[in-house]
Amino acid sequence: MLLRKVSVLACSHLRVISPKWSLLNQRPSHSLPPLTAGAYNVKRGDFAQITDNDLTHFQSIIGKDHVITDHNDLEMYNMDWMRSVRGQSKLLLKPKTTNEVSQIVKHCNERKLAVCPQGGNTGLVGGSVPVFDEIVLSTQRMNNIILIDPVSGVLVCQAGCILEAANNQLSKHSLMAPLDLGAKGSCHLGGNISTNAGGLRLLRYGSLRGSVLGVEAVLPSGEILDCLSELRKDNTGYDLKQLLIGSEGTLGIVTALAIQCVQKPLSTNLAFLGVDSFSNVLSLLRGARRDLGEILSAVEFMDQDCMRLVTTHLDCSNPISSHPFYMLIETSGSNAGHDEEKLSAFLDKIMSSGLAVDGTLATDVGKLQSIWALRERIAEATLREGYNYKYDVSLPTEHMYTMVEESRKRLRDVCLSVFGYGHVGDGNLHLNMTSEKFDPKVLSMIEPFVYEWVSKYKGSVSAEHGMGFKKRQYMGFTKSKSAITLMHRIKELLDPNGIFNPYKTLPDP
Predict the structure, then answer these.
(1) For 248-283, how does the pLDDT look when each residue is reduced to its tens digit (9 = 90+)?
(2) Nearest partner of 207 among 482, 500, 460, judged by Cα
(3) What is the largest CA-CA distance in the chain?
(4) In 3-state terms, what secondary structure has residue 227?
(5) How far apart are CA 60 and CA 190, in angstroms?
(6) Please, are residues 476 and 237 in contact by the beta-carbon 8 Å criterion?
(7) pTM attached to this predicted model
């Protein structure tokens, strides 16, 4: 086998999302400030203004220290981590319990005060930041783990539990959560559920929808919906939790959850490959599914512009020679000898056939993380180049990179770079463009072109990041008119005053 073992770390930092908001200071000075509602022609809804009486009432519920009105303290909650959208909230509330959330929401509904639920604020479509002056309700303090059952593998926790922190506790029982995200060090599990986050290992463990056993949530009326089942099989009536999963905080605020975890692998291997064409990327995907079968846990791709970004702007180095495409193929299982034998046979085959022309293999934990960082830190690297136009779409795999190529031809004279990467194993493309600063003319060349292209090939305009604020008006490119109408009816039924996360997810009626 021609692959060589990794001898040096490709990146010294392993986290896409740095400690909260440290990335704000890394943005190039020539970039424009993030967009506000005016740039999207959105008008404030008919909601009440916050009064001193409201503040006094909230202080009586959660204490004065957790009712935040200072402008400087609010800044990080008014802006997404990509610095692409910004609101003007004047109030941040940090409850600790479901009952406190219920009391807050009941008051807001009676007063018709708009609420923006916020977890780790690691989203990419503006779903977790206020658009105008909505009250930000943060789940930061709701971070208790309630139960870990090592026999059934069930985790029950509050919504504010950080994914990586939960995994650290699960690891003590040889368990792990069935999702892995670049933002694992900051994202909240409640936010993951509210956006139906995808991530790196959906290929192995499936959609988060299938792993969530139960949800506790506060409805817009203030009523607590207790569907916090720990059962894998419960076929009694409507599955109400599915309404909340992926609803982006527009129907209810998730306050606690039960999730089916998986056994932590005893053996993990990662091949990082250089590939000369996207057709070969697809051939390698088919071969990996065929030859690696039950131990295959992730298949990712990135193009050479992605590699340029992480090596130019971050402390990363390419451990192999330069190629048009790179693939990460990960295996995980319970028998190291068996797994290594299967992976070695697969790698011998693809190297001798020429499908992969270079590569390196990592088995050590530190080196595994280092190689993964090349893929996970791409989003961070885009912050260093300029303004980033980011699109998360699903497409039939044979069309994934064609979209990048056609976008590159269309935008080559107005963008610094056009590049693509993503979860090729499940058809999820992350299409990105960068320019020196935000330019509405550039945006008009991208939208609705990208969404029309996706619709033409029967794809989805949002694969895993939700609709949020940025994408909501383009839902019609994926969903039928009747489906959107029914969504509006559900919203009106559960939230007649429209106070939960307004201006998000659904298009205007």
Answers:
(1) 999 999 999 999 999 999 999 999 999 999 999 999
(2) 460
(3) 74
(4) strand
(5) 25
(6) no
(7) 0.90
